[in-house]
Write a structure and sequence with these properties.
The chain is α/β, with parallel strands linked by helices. Helix content is 44%, strand content 18%. 36% of the residues are buried.
């Protein structure tokens, strides 16, 4: 099962913000820089909180003035139960210094304790050592790209990779304009138009009669099979590259018949493969 409670910790500049974003995109409720005292209270009340939020992630780092030793003692029991995991993000000192120079940000301890960047990193390692030694996963992000880091984080907490990306299938009419947020677009105006069939004109692709007419064409079935092959091949690649949302568009002239039929069919296929997917018919009610 997916872990219910994840603590993200580690060195400043090692990628904690990327890790949190990756978890948020998969449905985690994320809390950044929660004080130790509140974490301790949260652990006492976790059963009530989990009723409404099944997956929770919390960032604990050098900005927190709390006693990490006290926190470690409080979370050991939850680690043993299997619902809590600690992920510690680390990186080489030189890489951390280079990242701060590139982003022109200041290490949290440089102003707080008037330290140089080198001294601040050294001090941070010492303070975070209790969390480092207790971590379930220690990840050196020195050579990781953003997508690689997201993929590794999700591999720790999500068993089913198909659930790390949400997919939307949208139908539309070209005469009303092309959606601006579509990643993959299929034009089905090459098929016969039910609009010119008197009995089907005022129906939509949600009606069985229209669906049967559209897919009764041999070319429609062949076209859909080729689209399925492309989608089935592409989705794992998008997930591997760290994409968290994908929109697939189907367009016909008015957005009522052919595009709706194909969008529904693709939605059903993707859902059967175990992905998180929704369908939206943008122009189905235009002109009514």
């Amino acid at each position: 099962m997916d872990y219910s409670f994840v603590i993200i910790t580690g060195m400043s500049g090692a990628g904690k913000s990327v890790a949190v974003k990756a978890l948020e995109d998969t449905g985690f409720f994320c809390i950044d820089n929660m004080p130790t005292s509140l974490i301790l209270k949260f652990l006492d009340l976790k059963d009530e909180f989990f009723i409404h939020n099944k997956k929770i992630a919390c960032v604990v780092d050098i900005r927190n003035d709390g006693d990490f030793l006290q926190l470690i003692e409080a979370i050991k029991e939850n680690q043993q139960s299997g619902i809590l995991k600690i992920i510690f993000l680390d990186s080489q000192d030189k890489v951390l210094m280079d990242r701060y120079k590139e982003t022109r940000r200041i290490h949290p301890l440089m102003l707080k304790k008037e330290l140089s960047i080198e001294a601040a990193i050294k001090c941070e390692r010492e303070v975070l050592m209790p969390l480092y030694t207790q971590a379930d996963y220690i990840l050196d992000t020195s050579l990781f790209s953003t997508s690689q880091l997201k993929d590794r984080i999700l591999s720790y907490v999500v068993n089913d990779k198909k659930k790390v990306m949400s997919i939307e299938v949208v139908s539309f009419g070209y005469k009303f304009g092309i959606p601006t947020d579509v990643d993959l677009m299929f034009d089905v105006r090459c098929l016969k138009n039910p609009f010119y069939i008197k009995e089907l004109k005022h129906l939509t692709g949600n009606d069985e009669a229209v669906k049967e007419f559209v897919f009764s064409q041999d070319t429609a079935e062949q076209l859909f099979e080729r689209q399925i092959s492309l989608i089935d091949f592409s989705l794992p690649l998008y997930i591997k590259e760290g994409k968290s949302h994908l929109t697939i568009g189907y367009g016909c002239t008015g957005g009522k018949h052919r595009s709706v039929s194909f969008a529904n069919a693709m939605h059903n296929h993707i859902k059967q493969q175990g992905y998180v997917v929704n369908v939206h018919h943008r122009d189905i009610n235009r002109g009514k």
